[in-house]
């Protein structure tokens, strides 16, 4: 596609991803990444910064809500639930990382879970759909990092 823009090509690749692209190895690694992220996220719910973010977020409400990890009696609109859970994941900096420096799962998993909870009972997604969404999020993040000259220079700056 020589006449296609970089952005158009990027969008085509991402749009074309489906569950058939999830190899056994990708599925196993994804499950490990998800379990690790949930673990550090649950641990992070006990941090002072997470408590502050939860208190701040209590002003938001919606008919659609998602779980705040470690707080079964407290729910928020998906956007804020993803934010609070993302803060919990990264609050102690134990979440996964890759090069160039980024924390892929902490940015993706809270959003994917919050959105999956927001679907109506009639449109519940499968575990495989969740794995696909997680991997698409990781793929988008990785490709955007590769496009970024700023990200490539991080190791040289530190």
UniProtKB/TrEMBL annotation:
GO terms for molecular function: aconitate decarboxylase activity. SUPFAM superfamilies: 2-methylcitrate dehydratase PrpD. It holds the Pfam family MmgE_PrpD_N. One of its GO terms (biological process) is defense response. It comes from the Eukaryota. Residues 9-151 form the MmgE/PrpD N-terminal domain. One of its GO terms (cellular component) is mitochondrion. Belongs to the PrpD family. This is IRG1 decarboxylase. It comes from Nothocercus julius. The gene is Acod1_1.
């Amino acid at each position: 596609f020589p006449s296609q823009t970089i952005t158009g090509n990027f969008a085509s690749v991402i749009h074309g991803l489906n569950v058939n692209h999830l190899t056994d190895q990708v599925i196993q690694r994804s499950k490990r990444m998800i379990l690790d992220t949930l673990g550090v996220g649950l641990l992070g719910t006990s941090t002072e910064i997470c408590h502050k973010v939860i208190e701040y977020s209590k002003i938001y409400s919606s008919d659609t809500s998602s779980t705040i990890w470690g707080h079964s009696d407290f729910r928020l609109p998906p956007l804020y639930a993803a934010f609070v859970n993302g803060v919990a994941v990264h609050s102690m900096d134990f979440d996964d990382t890759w090069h160039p420096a980024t924390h892929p799962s902490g940015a993706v998993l809270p959003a994917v879970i919050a959105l999956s909870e927001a679907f109506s009972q009639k449109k519940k997604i499968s575990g495989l759909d969740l794995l696909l969404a997680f991997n698409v999020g990781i793929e988008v993040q990785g490709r955007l990092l590769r496009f970024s000259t700023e990200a490539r220079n991080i190791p040289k700056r530190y």
